[in-house]
Specification:
Blueprint: H1 17-37, H2 43-69, H3 77-99, H4 103-124, H5 130-159
């Protein structure tokens, strides 16, 4: 039986290659952590796997694709590079701060994530694609709100 749909080529915008690759690496790392800790799963390992896959990985892919589609190509490669570095170092710091219970490291990680998200917001704020821009801003907003919520939850958990 012949395929009724013609093959389509997916063209990945050049500006999104780096965050897609880095996000994919994080997602695979989350899977590896999950597999390695399956026999001795704990609150921290379960949290870490979810964080690695959803925030460090999937969110990075969405942010990178969103910026590329919304026209970040007008942004300086330095700005995008700083954003990618901040996002990835921020995620490493959040993971280290939580897993090692080092609150100042957690705060530094959160600050780096806020910087990366603010940069993503600013580089796309004048995009002409209004619906896509709104969806992108909702993702950025949810991530921004989740940072202080996560810090408060971690502080409450550490207090017990």
């Amino acid at each position: 039986m012949a395929n009724p749909l013609p093959p389509t080529r997916v063209r990945i915008p050049a500006d999104s290659v780096v965050p897609i690759v880095l996000g994919a690496v994080w997602i695979v790392a989350g899977g590896l952590v999950s597999a390695a800790s399956a026999r001795t799963a704990s609150y921290h390992t379960s949290w870490a796997v979810a964080y690695i896959v959803l925030v460090a990985g999937a969110a990075q892919v969405v942010l990178g694709l969103g910026q590329a589609v919304l026209g970040v190509g007008r942004s300086s490669p330095r700005v995008l590079g700083a954003e990618y570095v901040a996002w990835n170092l921020g995620n490493i710091a959040v993971l280290a701060g939580v897993l090692l219970d080092i609150v100042p490291v957690l705060y530094v990680g959160c600050a780096l994530l806020v910087y990366a998200l603010a940069s993503a917001f600013l580089t796309t704020r004048h995009a002409p694609q209004r619906r896509l821009l709104l969806a992108f801003q909702v993702v950025v907003g949810v991530l921004l709100v989740s940072i202080p919520v996560g810090v408060v939850l971690q502080a409450l958990r550490a207090a017990h």
